[in-house]
Amino acid sequence: MYRALSAAERRAVAESDELDAISGLLWLTIYRNPGASLGELVAELAVDAALAARAVEQLLADGRIERTTSAGKERLSAKTFVVPIGAEHGWEAAVCDHFTAMASAIASKLARGVPRSADEDVVGGATYHFDVHEGHPQRQRVLALLREERARVGALWDEVRAFNAAHPVDEAAGSRVTFYFGQQVIEADGQEPQRQLQGESA
Fold it and tell me: What is the DSSP letter of 196?
């Protein structure tokens, strides 16, 4: 049986979608700015304070963020930011995280005053374009690059996270390495393939 949604039900659905989107962005912002207060987050993201407060409570209930008190003010922090493959919500924040990583790496490379690549680079990027038609002997290997890199990098990320959990050190003594990659496929007719290759963030 089907029926039309009432105005109140439509508002509830829209608000739920907005809450999920705001939750993802807040989680990412808290992860990048440990110790931020709710007021600071609201000001930075220019979001409704009441909606942000609800999103924070949702993140706390899910265990994605933590809340502490310092100098009489509540502070928020997140040890990880992970949007798994296939997640229905959080992709907005994952896209933002991916774009920021790429832009930051480019800016850092240019700021060094040597915008040339070298074998020993630890900051930078690379872009490869493959022309592979149907029946090309390397087509499937090329299309598998995203899947295989996700698996390889994800396994390493799990190892690093497990070691850090077992051997905690002062965060100020470490370095954060951000590795980003992506893949786009455009067919000969200019159309994207029916199966989209999704992104994730960790």
Answer: -
What is the C-alpha separation between 127 and 137, in angstroms, rounded?
Answer: 21
Q: Is the pTM of this model over 0.70?
A: no
The four Cα atoms 44, 49, 54, 57 give a dihedral, to 10 degrees, of: 60
Structural domains for the chain:
7-77 (1.10.10.10)
Partners of 201 in beta bridges: 83
pLDDT of 192 strictly over 60:
no
Q: From CA 78, how far away is CA 30, in angstroms rounded?
A: 6
**Is the CB of residue 25 less than 8 Å from the CB of residue 33?**
no
pLDDT in tens, 95-119: 878 888 888 888 888 888 776 777 8
**Is pLDDT of 53 > 70?**
yes
Cα(198)–Cα(177) distance, integer angstroms: 22
Confirm if 94 and 25 have CB atoms less than 8 A apart.
no
